[in-house]
Amino acid sequence: MAERVIPLVDQRLVALRAVLPARPVPATGLVADARGRPLRDLRISVTDRCNFRCSYCMPKEVFDKNYQYLPHASLLSFEEITRVARQFLAHGVRKIRLTGGEPLLRKNIEILVSQLAGLRTVEGTPPELTLTTNGSLLARKARSLKEAGLQRVTVSLDGLDDAVFRRMNDVDFPVAEVLEGIAAAREAGLGPIKVNMVVKRGTNEHEILPMARHFRGTGIVLRFIEYMDVGATNGWRMDEVMPSAEVRARLAAEFPLAQLEASAPGETAERWGYADGAGEVGFISSVTQAFCGDCNRARLSTEGKVYLCLFAGNGYDLRSLLRGGATDEELASAIGHIWQGRDDHYSELRGTMAADTGSGGRRVEMSYIGG
Ligand code: SF4
């Protein structure tokens, strides 16, 4: 059993100052970072709480009963989140994903969904509005989320075998309830639905084929995610990573596959189709096939910090500007300035000395800024 690292410094409590640049950065919809990557995708974490304890994200030994969640007053309100999202859209964002922790734990999240659904991209169209959930509350919430304006959901599900699933979520939560949630989301029209399975060698690779058999032919897109060294607490080891190439070979042995075109620049999943037309699967290979080259994602933490990479150490504190009386133009200028200075490409550097410069090796927790 890998040694778990108990964090000494709580990354949630450190922040970089978001400054108002001397030369304002107006929102033109065309801002690009230091590598020429546009800003197209905003992931908004609406809570640092979760009701699961998946070992690769929120290990129970660290996130135990004494773990201090962020006080509610420190979280951005729905109005503040919507105001910040409006500035990101003005800089070119087309897609908004709600994450957590577990976003459905945030009370009245439908109110936020309807506020975000009312926003517009620079083209005057509604943003693509999606949400990533562990599915535990989806059966109850699917219809109201759809009515509020949510378009689709991505459900994290690491196995179909009930014992394996209960072991992986580490709170003994039954797989049947997540499957009911997926069925309710389908019923409500929250699609196309995607299902994300993190594959950890020695834990659940034997679930790859049962998951494929279950979801193929249903219109639900199953994606296999390589186990990642996110945060500083999951005791990540390379020998527990099953490369996507190996997962794909296992799958293709039973179901021949053909590669598909990416559906949008910056897409994280490599798309493959079943040769017999039974649908699509995806592979998210941050460890063995870095995709930083066209990464166009920014992340907003639940209390208003902007992170420029899933593996970042620090985020920029927008809340001080928000609550300090900044105008929308000033907020947009600060966001543009932050993005222009972005040079992140951790996955291309993984394993090299350069990988963790700037964060001292303390990467922010995925449970805090969302996947
Ligand atoms: S490692 Fe960072 S820069 Fe690279 S794809 Fe992931 S989030 Fe983007």
Mind telling me the CATH class?
Alpha Beta
What ligands can be seen in this structure?
iron/sulfur cluster
Largest sheet: 13 strands, mixed
Q: Can you tell me the CATH superfamily?
A: Aldolase class I
Strand content: 15-25%
Query: What's the architecture, going by CATH?
Result: Alpha-Beta Barrel
Structural class: alpha/beta
Describe the structure.
- By secondary structure, the chain is α/β, with parallel strands linked by helices.
- Helix content is 27%, strand content 15%.
- It contains eleven helices and 13 strands.
- The chain has helices at residues 78-90, 109-117, 138-148, 162-169, 175-188, 208-215, 244-254, 319-323, 328-340, 346-349, 366-369; strands at 16-17, 41-45, 95-99, 128-133, 152-156, 194-199, 221-226, 257-259, 270-274, 280-284, 297-300, 305-307, 316-317.
- It has a 13-stranded mixed β-sheet.
- α2 runs parallel beside α3 (138-148).
- The protein is globular and about 60 Å long.
- The two termini are 24 Å apart.
- The relative contact order is 0.19.
- It comes from Ramlibacter alkalitolerans.
